[in-house]
Fold each of these.
Amino acid sequence: MVQGVYGHLPMEIQQRIAMRMDIPLSEISGVISFYSFFTTQPKGKYVINICLGTACYVRGGKNIVEKLEELLHIRVGETTEDKKFSINVMRCIGACGLAPAISINDQVYKQVNPDKLSLILATYE
Ligand code: FES
């Protein structure tokens, strides 16, 4: 809920959560660093999650990662300078039958291939 409000969970916010919930800061930080859903860095307006679960990986998910890094000039875990796009990888977004899949915010794209990525990104211009 806090990440939904602030967009990310920097140390100052983790400290406030720990104090308000009367839980050690180490426990709060441990949960945040363990789950990939949480982030301590601000994300772009559009967060691209590339699935690297088994089905997507064997059907070319790694090529999707490489092409997006090339198109956006950032690496996985980074955000473009204009704060428009961030790239993350995740495990299975529930579209295994139509792998490889990515999501951009709440929109899921199935049977993605590197050639389709420019067209997909263009819809976010
Ligand atoms: S492995 Fe990619 S959607 Fe399930």
Note: The helical segments are 2-6, 11-21, 25-34, 54-72, 117-122.
Amino acid sequence: MAVDTLRCRICESDFPAVASGVCLRCFGPLEPVYDWEQVAREATREAIERGPRSLWRYAPLLPTAAPPDAAAGPGWTPLVPAPRLAQAVGVREVFLKLDHTNPTHSFKDRVVAVAAAKAAELGTDTLACASTGNLGNAVAARAAASGMRSVVLYPRTVEPEKLLATAVYGGDMYAVNGSYDDCSRLVVELAGELDWAFVNVNLRAYYAEGSKTLAFEIAEQLGWQTPDAVVSPVASGSLFTKLWQGFEQFRRLGLVDGQSPRIFGGQAEGCAPVAHAFADERPVSPIRPNTIAHSLAIGAPADGDLAIATARASGGGIYAVPEDEIGANVSLLAAMSGVFGETAAGVTLGALRAATEDGALGPEDRVVVLVTGTGLKTPQIIETRAGIEIEADVDELLEHIGVTA
Ligand SMILES: Cc1ncc(COP(=O)(O)O)c(C=O)c1O
Ligand SMILES: [Zn+2]
């Protein structure tokens, strides 16, 4: 739906729905204001079920009209049961939301889809971002598909697989000698100079709304029911806060039965400003990241305090996951479910395990775990094996297997 107002989430000031990053009064995050009577008329279960098999089936709850190629959009990813994982961690049921099956193999295709639709509405010809890795892939791909220019700034330490998965689309790339937070500061400064669409700066209010579609899909795929809990990784905190908002919007519209789920989050110990502030019951203070979970390495998280408020309001929590458990968690997820997630998924699984260990989740709970990115982009953390070298000879093979002919 087209919206004409953005409202500050902190001081509630209203602004016109153009490309503006933060509240001019208090620097708080902005979000679109919907006409809820119109949303209620348009977003019925039947209308949604008739919609495209992409996130655009929820267009009445998004701040732009669906683009012409809505049917080919990201989203509508599988939600699959993982009974062996549920048993291993000690909860009633686990469902995995396979968001690494999006076009560029992470959930970032969702946020970029909405930001790019707004950029087209504004007539902008360049999509740009600061990225910890995955966002750049999604921006470069979407720009290529719509004939726009893309400009991506990365910290120089990003995984080579993520660079490749941006480079292939032919856009402009800058490898910054610094952290993600340095890249982020650079794009904020650039946004003051250029009228480009910086998806996570001046289009952040629209971009962030894309993450709500994860909540919408989970509820619809469970037969218009809510799970007891959702476990998510936390970097800037945007995904985490928007998950809760998505479930709350569905509940208020009467689209789901049951309460909204408790939302649990994970951060890697080497970059856990939100988890530590949650534990210490204080506001988030910026840190300098030092983690193998590069995609989550944001030391000054824009929505960190809102993520803490979300964890408390929903009855969830945010955990710091030890660095040396992240790789083991990725392997555990693979061995128990057949799903190969990236470091962020290792952190998410660590949060699930921490929540079961401290009793926040248990045998009563039906839990959805987000797999937000693919393991093939972060192979460095997994010990690979070449296999036993043999001649192309069946007797030799049988001998290795331990069967004598
Ligand atoms: C794979 C993956 N999962 C989760 C996140 C966290 O997103 P947010 O910044 O909305 O907290 C990111 C962010 O880059 C990511 O790449
Ligand atoms: Zn404000």
Note: The mean pLDDT is 96.
Amino acid sequence: MLIDIGANLSSQRFDGDIAEVLQHAKNANLEKIVITGTSIAESQAAIDLCTTHTADFPDMLYATAGIHPHSADQFDPQSTSISLRRLAAHPSVVAIGETGLDFFRNLAAPDIQQRSFEAHLELAIDLVMPLFLHERNAATRQLEILKAHRDQFHSAVIHCFTSDRKTLYKYLDLDLHIGITGWVCDERRGLDLQKIIADIPLNRLMVETDSPYLLPRNMAFSPKNNRNEPAFLPWVVAGIAAHRAESEAQIIAQTGATARQFFRI
Ligand SMILES: [Zn+2]
């Protein structure tokens, strides 16, 4: 079962043709898409997409609720947890996130990123919901924070994993799941990830497009707007299968089963 666990469908780049994009996904045999929430407003927009399209695409769309580390300066100790809790109560919301740490560009200051991340963790623990995590150039601190709470939160996925083997094993040691995007299909910057992709136990792996970003570079054609969409998820699977022992069909079956169980969808 093909399940895209991370698609930014509330992006403006889908404004004019979201219904067609969902139809393309269906035609490409996608069963389910989890729309990523990256701020309070974007999480609400993700929920609205689920609601608007449920009649045409029943049981296909889900959302996460969270604040991306890039937007962590909108975190407010008084109101954010209340807003997130309200969003998380919606039946379409299946995980808390996107949250985590990004010290690559530090678009928000590291200390506010950490406070926001910890508030998300507390909420996920309280609601017994899975976490949808982002991390870039911040593995040491992210691992420390996760470790401190590991006996309390139920499950978490490091989405768009692009780090090294050592970091991979540290996340796996914490019994986390790993999300892989079209980064692995990139014949230049994906080389390191290609070398370690077979080290991920198949039952800890899930797949995602991160649409509209990260258009898989192994595609046989390239869309004229250069926009990635969930329908291109099979290319991510192909990019993974090229560096693992299992067939594409096996990867689709197992990652789909894992995603259904992880998000309870
Ligand atoms: Zn991310």
Note: The chain has one domain: 2-263.
Amino acid sequence: MEKSFKALRIIEEGDRYLRKIENRKVSDLPEGDTLIKVRYSSLNYKDALSSAGNKGVTRNYPHTPGIDAAGTIVTSSEKTFSEGEEVIVTGYDLGMNTEGGFGEYIRVPSKWVVKKPEGLNLKESMIYGTAGFTAALSVYKLTETVDKDAGEILITGGTGGVANIASKILVKLGYDVVVATGKVDSQKEELLKLGVKSVISRKEIQDEKGKAMLKSRWAGVIDTVGGATLGDVIKSVNYNGAVTTCGNVGGDKFESSVYPFILRGVTLYGIDSVQCPMDLRLKIWEKLAGPWKAENLQEMISIVKLEELEQKIDEMLAGKKAGRIILTHE
Ligand SMILES: NC(=O)c1ccc[n+]([C@@H]2O[C@H](COP(=O)([O-])OP(=O)(O)OC[C@H]3O[C@@H](n4cnc5c(N)ncnc54)[C@H](OP(=O)(O)O)[C@@H]3O)[C@@H](O)[C@H]2O)c1
């Protein structure tokens, strides 16, 4: 008899989007040469948007979200994968318009699949997930240009998933990290536990006067916020410093003059985890599993079952999320 499995489905009904755990068949899954039994996934903001009917993320419903998945190979036409082998899929179209990790099985092209590196188990790989991968990619780019003795590194959106992991990695690598947050009163102590040098208010990095350049302050910046914040921080970067940009929670437009670039030689790196080429993707996962691995990975998570996921999606959409949410299909 054909295998059936559970998945959290988002169903479009008029202008409402309903969530329902349904039984699916493997033959319902999209085309693809690799079938994976998913053991863990994680909840990202993009999944919450997909669950809420955001057509910029997911065009067609019904749909199974889940941009991250870790599990074992069931079948693959790619000879280098064997049955039962542990693998990770993040990015590409997973969970967007391809059924994702909120189902117990996914079927995807083998070129999306990463062999799980030694040094990480499947659960740990999902504690990182897309947020951790993006953080590591940002650190990788920044540290190409900025040496650890060059000065302080600013990380914006401090309490967010990407910022949190980027802070841990940079502290581990011996950088002096300053975190900017909108929640300095309530979260300062928690953020200091990451080992960062100081925690400052988001307001402190805002440029109220609209100057073209500000006093040099940062050797580098990992910006996870975008919008006006990105334009402001670029003005304070030291000579030959660098900024990475990965997010748009603070807006998708920023203003800048050319002066930080032509007078201070500042480099701006765009960070994309979705289409990141496979050779770099593998390199980043190896770093997360080895020299960059955080000691206290299990501390920042809650593990939920499919039945509990709906409530977590609502909390994320209401801005009440704290820490990473890991979905187990075990
Ligand atoms: N490029 C890629 O491939 C890629 C991959 C993953 C994620 N992303 C993007 O990267 C960004 C960060 O992701 P994440 O997972 O870390 O998100 P997250 O966990 O939701 O954290 C974002 C943080 O940004 C700050 N923030 C929220 N709204 C803000 C506003 N209006 N102005 C300024 N700061 C604000 C908050 O931190 P404080 O309150 O502490 O300031 C919040 O915790 C998102 O935009 C996400 O879509 C991009």
Note: The first strand starts at residue 4 and ends at 13.
